[in-house]
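dumping this here before i forget
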Amino acid sequence: MAENAFLSVLSPNYFNINSMIATPNLVQSSHFCQFSLRSANTCKRSFRSDGNSTFFPVRTNAGAQLRKRISALTASSAASTIATDQKKVLVPTGFGTEEMDAVIIIDILRRAGADVTVASVEPNLQIQCSSGTKLIADTLISTCAEEIFDLVVLPGGMPGSARLRDSEILRTITRKQAEGGRLYGAISEAPAIALDAWDLLSCVEVTCHPQFTYRISCLWIVTSNVHKDRLLTTSRGPGTAMEFALSFVEQLYGKEKSEEIEKALVMPTKGGSELGRQEYNAVDWTFTNRPSVLVPIANGSEEMETVIIVDILRRASVNVVVASIEEELEILGSRKVKLVADKLIEDAAKSTYDLIILPGGMPGAERLGLCEPLRKLLREQALSNRVYGAICASPEIVLEPQGLLKDKKATAHPSFSSKLGDQSDVYAGVVIDGKVITSKGPGTAMEFSIALIDKLYGHDRARGIAQGMVYNYTEVLSDY
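structure:
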């Protein structure tokens, strides 16, 4: 006798497999187990105990028929997804959204050519993120209610995830996305706080931030950094956000495009030389008081690098001042993310800082290099033997022309490293030479920022920050 498979359905009366096969959107709905065919015991664990579910046997050959049909639907959907060049993507934000999650997703998908709409679930376009970064959304969520998106992806953060959960418009958009057989996803706390509350995790395998797994009612929880289960993709935290975003690039545009962007970001590859962090002329970075850091930004600054540096330093309770060198506090990043600085550079220049750290991006790095108040601050920083550093294009564009890398080992983005005076360590992800620190690009920005915490507070503090982000601290230090 053929082995029986079991399905749980919401109706207690009967189950018609042919009707499910004939209705692709119904099959793809999370209310029908997201195509899942599990054993009775496993499926029983995945449902809430509301008394509405019932179990009964379905012949295995029927299950095989359903699996075959689902595979065809999924393959057809994937093929049609990659066929069109520009895809529409919705990234909602709210008060307390995790800025690294949001900006990394936006930046990488825009690099792929996606039409990304950043929508605020708040009454205003400007929102303050979980670590204090101020972002300006493109529109309010209410304007997106009738739009059709190829992908809806929720960043995490607290209370940001709860603010997303409480948006009725966003809930409706996301449920329609799932029921319409289109891609959706969430990262960090958002799978547990938002998707689970909206009943979009029934019978799917899911991952989320380790501290929030207990909030997920479905017990099919996995520990992979990024996990795709048919239409749904979830991820664990800011430290996995680049991998998460690249997974959507692959789903929307194909593997070749994903690999192209990964290379441009200078993403670390396991066992590759770019994993290395090199230090020369080691000295302690010690301060009597809470360290203060100036992060200057301009129109065209790389938003991923900016936000990663600022967020991670603030997680360690560093006093970070973001200063605009433009005439206004608001700047437009290289991937069109709108950031709001804390001060104008003229006001920021009235103070001294323990560290000055420059993000890259073009034409942002060029604009930083032409800013006389910033140039003066950097010269004074070097003369006073205080810490300064840069990432991506800025080591070559800003520091090198001013002689601030003279007799210093440094690295930069591969496209902007040929004019560095010392070429011996341009392959390294992060290079520290005394009180000068440089790094390669967006893909090494987390390593760069954790290195700053390591120098400021030591290994234990750096390890704790990395763990909270779900970032692999041990791997970063492999060649230290």
